[in-house]
Amino acid sequence: MIGVVFCGGKSTRMGTDKGLIPILDDNWASLAFKKLSNLGIPVKVSINSDQKLNYLNFFAEEQLLPDNLSLHVAGPLLGLLTAHVQYPNESIFVLACDLPLMEVGLLKRLQLAEENEPETDAIVYLNSGNVEPLCAAYKPTGLVKVMSELRSNTLRRHSMKHVLSLLKVHQLDIPKGEEQSFTNFNTQGIT
């Protein structure tokens, strides 16, 4: 399993690179990196090519995973498939950098489910009836299916929720009182 912190978005609503927003003595990307590292897995930071110089101030070059532009997709799916191409035999555990309230215990629960649900392609949390695709584990079996659809030009939409609709997904309920961990920040205001 490889952990991947998603930082490669354009952050248009935020107005600044979300991953580099300061929080306490850190930034959102580093905080997410540390949380995934607590799972005892290697972790990479998914970025677009424009971000590389800024992220080298916080991460070693080998920790960065720049988007593979030969894949003709955009958004979080590009980060996910870039990781899959680089690590085709590994499950990809994704965590968006704009979930700074995420608790490590929820990540560990997701990791345990990934290990104990061999017949699934992905494991996600269910939040008020909606899947949370940016704190999830994607197995190679499912990612092979997505790549096949992409290569055959049958992948109709590139949204993460559409991708999940193509896969056999195991859904975890968020424990009561933990819903705030999935608060996605798209405007400034948390530090």
Automatic annotation (TrEMBL):
Domain of life, source organism: Bacteria
Species the sequence originates in: Pedobacter petrophilus
Key word Cytoplasm present: yes
Pfam families hit by this protein: NTP_transf_3 (PF12804)
Start and end residues of each MobA-like NTP transferase domain: 3-153
SUPFAM superfamilies from the UniProt entry: Nucleotide-diphospho-sugar transferases
UniProt protein name: NTP transferase domain-containing protein
Gene Ontology terms: biological process: Mo-molybdopterin cofactor biosynthetic process
InterPro entries named among the record's database cross-references: MobA-like_NTP_Trfase, Molybde_CF_guanTrfase, Nucleotide-diphossugar_trans
Keyword Endoplasmic reticulum in annotation: no
Gene3D superfamilies found in the cross-reference section: Spore Coat Polysaccharide Biosynthesis Protein SpsA, Chain A (3.90.550.10)
Keywords of this entry: Cytoplasm, GTP-binding, Magnesium, Metal-binding, Molybdenum cofactor biosynthesis, Nucleotide-binding, Transferase
GO MF annotation, one: GTP binding
